[in-house]
Amino acid sequence: MVLSLPHMSTFGEPELVLKQIVVGPLMENVYILGDKGTGECLVIDPGAEGERILQEVRRLGLEVTLVVNTHGHVDHIGAVATVVEATRASYGIHPGDRPLLEAAASSPLRVMLPDFREPPQPDLELAQGQWVQVGSLRLRLLETPGHTPGSVCFYLEGQDGPGMVFTGDTLFRGSIGRYDLPGGDGRLLLQSIREKLLVLPPETRVYPGHGPGSTIGWEKAHNPFLLQDYG
């Protein structure tokens, strides 16, 4: 069964708050993940419409303590500066994508993002095996290069319900990320998905950087890019 992400949900634990916002002309998914008990939250991939993201954080009664990127493409980083400056949150990205941050100012995609601002220097360098923690929520960082050299995913293990993984542009419902852009590697992308994502429990909910959500089990059974190995 393919699961759609509701506007605001709790999954097994009443303290967990998850909000999806679709921003910008490239319809990029921003995720606000918070611990209602402590009032803390992190923002994953604030790509555009920073003021709208901040407004939603305030509506949820949360405080942003961390901003993270799954990768450094322009449509995922355009509102990082706006959110970080307004909240004084820490900012993290994998060092493999630092060159993308540095090249953002000259990206032709900037014309599609009128509120784009160059992101600040990261406070944190994300790497395999690290844990990202906000309140009582601990997400395991998974290095998944292929779409970009520094692509990562964030996995929150389920307690009383399914876990969830935020996959950026590595894995989509029924598809995978592009690998024809500079720094992309199709072989490495499939290897990352096979070794880091498809080993997660099949009920794990997939929250991608664009488009609707899915589950790991559905992708293993139906994703045409993966059926060669898992059909």
Structure commentary:
- The model is unreliable at 1-13 (pLDDT under 50).
- The chain has helices spanning 50-59, 74-77, 80-87, 98-103, 186-197, 216-222, 227-230; strands spanning 16-23, 28-35, 40-44, 63-68, 90-93, 124-125, 131-134, 137-143, 152-156, 164-168, 171-172, 175-176, 205-208, 214-215.
- The strands form three sheets. The protein has a six-stranded mixed sheet with strand order 1-2-3-4-5-6, covered by helices on one side. Strands 7-8-9-10-13-14 form a six-stranded mixed sheet.
- It has 231 residues and is α/β, with parallel strands linked by helices.
- It has a single domain (16-230), classed as Ribonuclease Z/Hydroxyacylglutathione hydrolase-like (Metallo-beta-lactamase, Chain A, 4-Layer Sandwich), CATH 3.60.15.
- The longest helix has 12 residues, at 186-197.
Task: Name its key features.
alpha/beta; globular; Metallo-beta-lactamase, Chain A; single chain; six-stranded mixed β-sheet; disordered N terminus; 231 residues
CATH architecture: 4-Layer Sandwich
Radius of gyration: 16 Å
Shape: globular
**Tally the helices: what do you get?**
7
